Amino acid sequence: MSLAAQVQATLNTKAAAPGADGGVTALxxxxxxxxxxxxxxxxxxxxxxRIAPIVRRLxxxxxxxxxxxxxxxxxxxxxxxxxxxxxxxxxxxxxxxSPFKALRFKVIPDLIQHIESTxxxxxxxxxxxxxxxxxxxxxxxxxxHDIAQDLPGWDxxxxxxxxxxxSVATAQRxxxxxxxxxxGLDAMSKSNYFSHEAExxxxxxxxxxxxxxEVRNLxxxxxxxxxxxxxxxxxxxxxxxxxxRASVFNRMVETITPGGWxxxxxxxxLSDLGPQFTPQTHCNxxxxxxxxx
Length: 293
Fold this sequence. Notes:
Its EC number is 2.1.1.80. The chain folds into two domains: 84 residues, no CATH class; 191 residues, Vaccinia Virus protein VP39 (Rossmann fold, 3-Layer(aba) Sandwich), CATH 3.40.50.150. 44% of the residues lie in helices and 17% in strands. It is built from twelve helices and ten strands. Strand 4 and strand 5 form a beta hairpin. It is globular and about 65 Å long. About 3% of the residues have low confidence.
């Protein structure tokens, strides 16, 4: 049976005999465990278009063989390839726009005022929890840089994390093609914060100094040594199963300072997770100031 036929047969029935699907069921379970992307019967095209090429490149017998190799002690590179293939890397600078307006005109000013009034250390920590190839982080950094000119002596840092090692490597490099820079950036931002290099654009040092990037799986424990004032977790939990989504956001609340802010995707709503997730609207953006239960 062809790889395409294996996928279609498995996703069309819940009663396949163990091993009869060429490992498609094992692959689906492994991807869910590996990065939280749950493949229901509408996602067969993702397996065929993104994972089948890995099977062919590695000359695996079938999907079961791929899973067995990935689970082996020496399978880290294969696991990374699967994560990079199955996760969505669609992003752009200032995506959806309104969260960055809320950040600039409401959230950061309120946060600075709160820190000043309480005598807290002059520092702001922001976490972009599914940063993909870094455009969200650098968009936040542009907002911070504009504001930081009026905040001498403040310690401002953005942590960008993603489950995809390849995406994190791209974000760390900070180099983007003409097409990528053209998506979401106006001419002034490009001129102020990028330099033209090697038929593309390099993020300027004044932005990179705000940033740090790490590979991180949101389904695993968060190894925080401090709290974040603002967390962006946009358009990633929509791929998780309901219990995983609830776990991610409830654990995320524990990493946010009292009175801190949480941004999710424009189509996401968290009110079903409990009263601590009461939405607020600022600059046409829905955001949250969650409190631990």
